[in-house]
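Hi all, posting the design record for the shared folder.

TITLE: backbone redesign
STEP: 1 of 1
STRUCTURE INPUT:
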């Protein structure tokens, strides 16, 4: 395989359907054999005896549909909007005529309610995506109801971050080992973002909370190009985090049957996860190269070739390493995707598809060599065999030594390195065949089969605090396949989806039985009136556990005895893990309150079982922690949305009320609780209690609006108000008792984007000013405190005082440090030691990372032709 991978995707797999009825204007009788054609395409159909027609596999977009029949005036229906996986419905009445007369054009009315959305669906279109203050298209979901962003992760309807499926043109870009998306596509390459937070179809697997599908741009019929640049570097220091982003794209058609689209995106920032101010060792450089080639030898056969190669690399910051950040962790991920897809549509009611895909990703983390690095240069990592365990006993910049109260993993380090190095590779090949059949006027059948061959390699090197390091090296080739069948029923005012999905996965471990998952899906909707819709959905979702949870350190069992002296051993994998499961219930209402004012109300309830957690295992020769299906969660909530529009202003307001309770916020939480609370005491077992999860946000209001200003200038505002996240306050003696019983302060932020288009013939220039956190409000997003309360520092307990009091420079021992001699009198007094320890503790308080970013300002400009 070449480094730049060619991804072959079917353009039409991301489309919808047009159906309707053609009748006589005077008599109301159906007109059989009328021709229905979508202009500027080769798609069309003929009406049946009852005047009905169906056109499957219509790409998302806006169309003109022409209806003609001998003896009738031809009619052209303009502004027919086709959405992904939705149906555009037309009711056409033709006028009889004895002579040929020019066609009549009518405008299709966009329905205020969408009949066939049996589950919640949010669509972010290209025009809206262009003005959102985000870089990557996937981040657009942060502006949708029931989405909580916790640091850099998205949580949908109270679920874990690993419960979301990421797709690009219906192809998964998720790494099954880690649960991370491997390819980020810039918003300039995306036409629509389809976000499904619940009630999704049977074709979607490995997801329990949501599906994010990025539909990329389709090659145009004429030459088009775009250059785009956005930066903070021209701003004053206070507003500048070193951010720069450059994008370019071009459409290159040879003919209507052969055309291409190509784009390139590069981004650099000095702080990729900004907090109160720029922190060192947080640089990030990303690039992606994307291309697509569409080929249609006939209207029945269509193929699209496209390709993507992406690289992301960044440094990390941790307060414990603030004195030795050059020895802390950096990450690099290289990814590419290949797919071959062919579709054949023998008639307007049948569609057959075949897809072969390949996803390859390699992630490395460790301590990198010092730079400098260009944006396109890959990190070079230090030899892992030279890494050393981080130490806390070396003098720090304050001139004091570690006291007995600063032991443990929370103590800052002054020597050594980040004690891990990892290379992890995922190689996934999938074959998929599927079909859509309009079997009957009221029934559309969808079915599919997919097989996945996977090859996972891992090398992890753990530097131990003992003499012997720990090496975890393995290669496994687990297999997965799935089947699904779904009937889309469209009967008069009722629409229903009845489906079932079967999943099978084999962990490729001897004596471990393969696991199966059966996931029924059912949803329906019906029109109470022509402007009011009711819908309901009951579904079972399941996903295989991440393969990291199966394989990590498992090949070392039984653990060698020398590991017993290691400080802390990560949780051991469990290849016999069962699938995680979610049972979801949802009802929704949508209606037009009045003209240009639409309201939506969604209510959901989820029971999540067999969640991955960790449990303590008593074993010989040493005990350990292991992943297991021991956690659960219960989630419920309400979403209310109001959308409005007039000639001057348009926008939406959403409110989310939700409760997310469970026994674990992430898989290894019990393990880390054990470390924090007991320091590794094997006689203490974490209590199994239900609590509000770390990402539970009870109330959240989001406002998005666009106002048209003079001189064709647009003002876009984005504001949210949210309840603070729960946190666990320290109890007596610094121990944490009841979990998440307190709340951080409420959150509030306003972002602003101002855009001004300028046109010069075929050329169009758009200037943008983007202000993030317009009001410069610093939200507290996590609890923070010093390693020890200052009032608890007792000089008599400090190791320093065991040696000599006071310490003078002429003693000739290592205890004297000039940095600790505040008054430079050649003697370190107890008071100086106390004050320096207090200052030292303040410096190790992670207060900077506890607050959100300050105001930031960016200037952008795009030129298109």
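Okay, here is what came back for every position:
SEQUENCE:
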């Amino acid at each position: 395989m070449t480094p730049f991978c060619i991804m072959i995707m079917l353009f039409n797999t991301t489309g919808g359907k047009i159906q309707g009825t053609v009748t006589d204007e005077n008599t109301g009788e159906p007109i059989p054999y009328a021709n229905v054609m979508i202009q500027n395409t080769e798609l069309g159909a003929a009406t049946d005896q009852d005047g009905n027609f169906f056109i499957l596999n219509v790409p998302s977009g806006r169309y003109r549909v022409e209806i003609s029949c001998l003896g009738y005036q031809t009619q052209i229906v303009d502004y027919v909007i086709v959405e992904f996986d939705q149906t555009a419905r037309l009711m056409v009445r033709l006028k009889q005529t004895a002579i040929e007369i020019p066609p009549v054009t009518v405008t299709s009315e966009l329905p205020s309610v969408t009949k066939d959305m049996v589950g919640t669906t949010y669509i972010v279109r290209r025009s809206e995506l262009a003005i959102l203050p985000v870089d990557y298209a996937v981040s657009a979901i942060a502006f949708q109801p029931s989405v909580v962003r916790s640091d850099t992760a998205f949580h949908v309807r109270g679920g874990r971050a690993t419960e979301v499926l990421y797709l690009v043109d219906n192809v998964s870009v998720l790494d099954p080992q880690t649960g991370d998306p491997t390819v980020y596509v810039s918003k300039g390459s995306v036409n629509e973002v389809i976000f499904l937070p619940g009630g999704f179809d049977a074709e979607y697997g490995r997801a329990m909370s949501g599906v994010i599908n990025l539909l990329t741009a389709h090659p145009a019929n004429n030459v088009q190009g775009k250059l785009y640049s956005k930066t903070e570097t021209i701003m004053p220091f206070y507003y500048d985090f070193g951010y720069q982003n450059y994008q370019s794209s071009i459409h290159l058609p040879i003919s209507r049957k052969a055309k291409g689209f190509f784009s390139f995106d590069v981004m650099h920032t000095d702080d990729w996860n900004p907090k109160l101010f720029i922190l060192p060792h947080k640089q990030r450089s990303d690039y992606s190269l994307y291309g697509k080639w569409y080929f249609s030898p006939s209207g029945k056969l269509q193929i699209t070739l496209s390709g993507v190669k992406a690289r992301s690399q960044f440094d990390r910051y941790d307060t414990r390493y603030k004195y030795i950040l050059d020895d802390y962790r950096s990450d690099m991920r290289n990814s590419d995707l290949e797919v071959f897809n062919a579709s054949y549509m023998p008639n307007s009611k049948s569609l057959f598809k075949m897809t072969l895909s390949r996803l390859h990703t390699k992630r490395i983390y460790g301590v990198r060599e010092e730079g400098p690095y260009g944006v396109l240069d890959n990190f070079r990592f230090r030899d892992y065999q030279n890494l050393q365990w981080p130490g806390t006993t070396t003098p720090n910049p304050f001139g004091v030594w570690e006291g007995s109260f600063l032991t443990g993993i929370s103590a800052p380090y002054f020597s050594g390195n980040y004690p891990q190095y990892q290379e992890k590779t995922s190689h996934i090949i999938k074959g998929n065949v599927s079909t859509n059949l309009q079997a009957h006027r009221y029934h559309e059948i969808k079915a599919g089969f997919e097989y996945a061959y996977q090859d996972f390699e891992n090398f992890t090197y753990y530097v131990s605090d003992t003499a012997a390091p720990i090496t975890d090296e393995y290669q496994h080739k687990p297999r997965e396949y799935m089947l699904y069948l779904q009937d889309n029923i469209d009967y008069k005012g009722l629409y229903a989806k009845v489906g079932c999905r079967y999943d099978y996965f084999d962990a490729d471990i001897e004596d471990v039985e393969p696991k199966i998952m059966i996931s029924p899906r059912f949803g329906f909707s019906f029109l109470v009136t022509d402007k009011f819709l009711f819908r309901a959905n009951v579904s079972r979702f399941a996903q295989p556990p991440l393969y990291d949870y199966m394989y990590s350190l498992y090949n070392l069992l039984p653990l060698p005895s020398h590991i017993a002296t290691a400080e802390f051993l990560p949780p051991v994998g469990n290849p016999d893990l069962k699938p995680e499961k979610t049972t979801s219930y949802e009802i929704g209402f949508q209606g037009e309150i009045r003209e240009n004012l639409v309201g939506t109300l969604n209510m959901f309830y989820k029971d999540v079982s067999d969640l991955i957690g960790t449990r303590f295992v008593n074993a010989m020769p040493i005990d350990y922690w292991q992943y297991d299906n021991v956690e659960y969660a219960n989630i419920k909530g309400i979403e209310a949305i109001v959308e409005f529009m007039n000639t001057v202003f348009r926008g939406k307001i959403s409110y989310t009320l939700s409760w997310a309770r469970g026994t674990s916020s992430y898989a290894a939480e019990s393990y880390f609780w054990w470390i924090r609370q007991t320091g590794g005491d094997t006689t203490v077992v974490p209590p199994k209690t239900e609590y509000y999860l770390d990402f539970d946000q009870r109330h959240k209001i989001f406002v998005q609006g666009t106002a048209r200003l003079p001189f064709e200038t647009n003002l876009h505002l984005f504001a949210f108000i949210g309840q603070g996240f729960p946190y666990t306050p320290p109890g007596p003696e610094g121990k944490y008792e009841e979990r998440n019983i307190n709340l951080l302060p409420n959150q509030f932020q306003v972002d602003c984007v101002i855009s001004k288009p300028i046109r010069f013939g075929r050329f169009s220039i758009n200037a943008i000013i983007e202000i993030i956190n317009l009001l410069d409000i610093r939200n507290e997003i996590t609890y923070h405190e010093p390693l020890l309360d200052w009032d608890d520092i007792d000089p008599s307990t400090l190791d320093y005082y065991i040696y000599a009091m006071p310490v003078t420079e002429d003693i000739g021992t290592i205890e004297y440090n000039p940095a600790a001699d505040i008054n430079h009198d050649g003697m370190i007094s107890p008071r100086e030691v106390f004050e320096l320890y207090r200052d030292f503790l303040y410096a190790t308080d992670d207060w900077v990372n506890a607050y959100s970013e300050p105001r930031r300002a960016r200037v952008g400009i795009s030129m298109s032709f």
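COMMENT: Residues 209 and 717 are 28 Å apart (CA to CA).
Let me know if anyone wants the other runs.
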